[in-house]
Amino acid sequence: MKKRITILGATGFTGRIIVEQLSETGRSFSIAGRNITTLNELKTSVPNIDKIIQIDVFDDNQMDSLLEKTDILINCVGPYNIYGQQLLTKVRFHDIIYMDLTGEQSFVKNSFDEYRNNSEKYFATILHSISFESTLADLLAAEICHTGTCYHDISAYYILSDMGPSPGTRLTMKLANHFPHYAYQNSNYVKASPLSLRKTINSHLIVDYNNALFMPYPEIIFYANRYKTENAASYLLLPRGLDNVVFKNDKKSQTQSVEQIVNNHIKQNYIGPSLHKRLMQTFHLLVIATHSDNTSKSILLSGNDTYGITAQLIVQCLKICEQKQNIKAGVFAPSVFFEETTVLNSLCKECNCTIRL
After folding, report:
1. CB burial class (10 A; 0-12, 13-18, 19+) of residue 207?
2. What pTM, to 2 d.p., does this model score?
3. Average pLDDT, the chain
């Protein structure tokens, strides 16, 4: 039977890109959001939108009604620590597939912890971080790691050219100090704020970059849950010679409340990068898995347009949802849900990415 797809937050920056790419596949789907005017405008400009739904994610009755009429919910409404918690509590009681784009580590960790403690209460299939951040790092780790092997460390390293964040990512960054972040050290989660940890690496795949600064992405949660590893982390990777680089803290955001930050952000009316800037942006994503005997394996993914890749990941995930039989309820790392699929190869083909070992 044809699955009913709804994109929540469809008129946001990344939501629109997903709408456009999903429309190109010929699938019909619904879009949902707060502003009926922008929803109508989007429906007029993009084909294959079946219907529009005006909704407030904090209205329990509206959300229950939406979830009862949806088989697959793509949640693009962030920051998820603010707008996602109440929705996720409702989602788990519905027999649907839920996926989001979150890069917010504490949101993902809380979800895994809740499922571990109350698995019998889950009817939904929940997939977090189906986006450039974390899903790719998780899939790359699955290419070089084995669940039965013991590891000393599994870490991801990002090299990103400057493009400018989307409005949602910008707001999430401003709110970073208001929510906990974690590294995984000595088989335990320890609190660690962004940029608080540094290390030097050497890789034959990226010879000009070796200075790593901690950036707490959700793949840390995925690695810790799936593999027997003592340590797990994610980092921004900087060029050689920048050992003493110092990043300025946004002191204003540190002193403001969450509500003040959100209200100020809305007033600024930020726009995301243009298509030209997206296509000009380049990235490299390196994953290194180090065994207990200090031998290691590494894999590197390179490409451009991280927002386009996020949209394509959603499309690939939808294909798998349509093909899979007897999908289990629960909270799953992307690599677990995508296991025994060719999603990484398909993504490289669609988005012109390359992989090196």
Report:
1. exposed
2. 0.93
3. 91
- pLDDT tens for 36-51 read 999 999 999 999 999 9
In 3D space, the residue among 246, 247, 219, 245 whose CA is nearest the CA of residue 233 turns out to be 219
* pLDDT tier, 253 (very low <50, low <70, confident <90, very high otherwise): low
Q: Are 42 and 10 in contact (CB under 8 A)?
A: yes
One domain for residues 247 and 279: yes
Longest dimension (CA), the chain: 60
- d(Cα 312, Cα 324) in Å, to the nearest integer? 18
Question: What pLDDT is stored for residue 13 in this prediction?
Answer: 93
Q: Are 78 and 106 in contact (CB under 8 A)?
A: no
Range of the domain at 270: 132-305
Domain count for the chain: 2
The amino acid that residue 129 corresponds to is S
pLDDT for res 223: 98
Instruction: Give yes or no: residues 28 and 93 share one domain.
Output: yes
Residue pair 337/130 in contact (Cβ under 8 Å)? The answer is no
Give residue 338's identity as a one-letter amino acid code.
F
Which structure tokens are listed for 116? 């571990």
Q: What is the pLDDT of residue 105?
A: 95
Q: Which two tokens stand for residue 280?
A: 């000009």
pLDDT of residue 146: 94
Nearest to 240 by CA among 215, 214, 203: 203
CB proximity list for 176: less than 8 A, separation 6 or greater = 193, 194, 253
Q: Is residue 357 situated within a structural domain?
A: no
Check whether residue 127 and residue 153 sit in a common domain. Answer: no
State both tokens at 328. Answer: 């289990």
- Nearest-5° Cα angle at 334, 328 to 340: 75
Mean pLDDT of 17-31: 96
Same domain, 67 and 91: yes
Among 305, 324, 340, give the residue marking a domain's end. Answer: 305
What share of the chain in percent tops pLDDT 90? 74
Looking at the predicted structure, is the pLDDT value of residue 311 above 80? yes
Pairing state between β 198-200 and 354-356: unpaired
The three-state secondary structure class of 149 is coil
Q: Are residues 125 and 242 in the same domain?
A: no
